[in-house]
Amino acid sequence: MSPIIRKQNTPSGAIFSLLLALSIHQTLTADVTPSVVTPETNSPPASPATPGPPEKGTYNVTNATDVVCLLARMGLQLKINFISSSSGKTVQEVLNLHPSLVKSSGSCDPDSATLILTEDNITLTFSFSLNSTSDKYHLSGLELSAALPNMTKRTVFRNTTLNYMVGTLGHSYMCQKEKSLSVTQDFSLNTFQLQVQPFGVNGDFGAAEECDLDEDDMLIPIIVGAALAVLVLIVILAYLIGRNRSHAGYQTI
Predict the structure, then answer these.
(1) CATH no. of 57-214
(2) Compositional bias of type Pro residues: which residue ranges (predicted)?
(3) Per-10-residue mean pLDDT for the chain, 253 residues long?
(4) Burial of 59 (C-beta count, 10 Å sphere; 0-12/13-18/19+)
(5) Contact 76, 175 (CB under 8 A)
(6) Strand pairing partners for 34?
(7) Cα separation of 122 and 102, whole Å?
(8) Which of 73, 94, 72 has its CA nearest to residue 82?
(9) Full-prediction pTM beyond 0.85?
(10) Which residue of 40, 42, 67, 77 is surrounded by the most CB atoms within 10 Å?
(11) What is the pLDDT of residue 37?
(12) What is the structure's pLDDT at 247?
């Protein structure tokens, strides 16, 4: 007779209950990360990006006989403060003039000259004066008339008592560095790579008289070069003195 093997009953129900209890316990005891509600904030509106350096343009004015009497080569950037029609607050606009879009005109007289640059709704007028006694000229006035999209109305900024771009009759005034010309409290003009000659033009720019900013740039290499020359001279003198002392230490027997 074959032996009878009894199959043991597996307590599957108990195991399932144990696993279910463990799962519920882990769910209840798990760390719950509280959700954080970030309060809404009213961020200020982004300010318009400042444009890069403007493109350099060449402008001229001719007299009644169609002879060039004023020459100018420069990049121009306008910085204007005005009341915005949309917000009612004072805003600042920085604009570059684009030579390809600018129309130039003006006039020349014995002791005064004007250069008028117009682009869309912007008109910029330069006024130059000549002192016939000293043969010195200067930029005596600047006027900007602008009707920007965000302006409540066309605005005019004017100053007729300026003393910029001082030069000598027959010579040009040059300032390659960026230079800011304060015109009024709400308007300033930035010039780049400027060269202008409003009087005594003879076909082309006369010899250039540089502005202080350009002269300072030339002064730095001169100072550095002079300092190096002095240093080399000191080294040579020290070498010669040391050599003479070494020869003096030897005596003839």
Answers:
(1) 2.40.160.110
(2) 45-54
(3) 46 51 52 47 51 95 95 98 93 96 97 97 98 97 96 96 97 97 97 98 96 64 63 76 65 53
(4) buried
(5) no
(6) none
(7) 10
(8) 94
(9) no
(10) 77
(11) 45
(12) 59
List the structure tokens of 81.
């403060």
| Residue closest to 69 by CA, chosen among 207, 206, 210 | 206
Q: Given the DSSP bridges, would you call strands 57-62 and 179-184 parallel, antiparallel or unpaired?
A: unpaired
Q: What is the pLDDT of residue 135?
A: 97
Per the listing, tokens 């200067």 go with: 138
| Residue 112 to residue 9: CA distance in whole angstroms | 119
Residues found in the chain: 253
Residue pointed to by tokens 């230079």:
179
- The amino acid at 218: M
Question: d(Cα 229, Cα 224) in Å, to the nearest integer?
Answer: 9
Considering only the C-alpha atoms of the chain, give the largest distance between any 2 of them, rounded to a whole number of Å.
147
User: Which has the closest alpha carbon to 203: 170, 249, 244?
Assistant: 170
Task: Supply φ then ψ for residue 209, to 5 degrees.
Answer: -105, 115
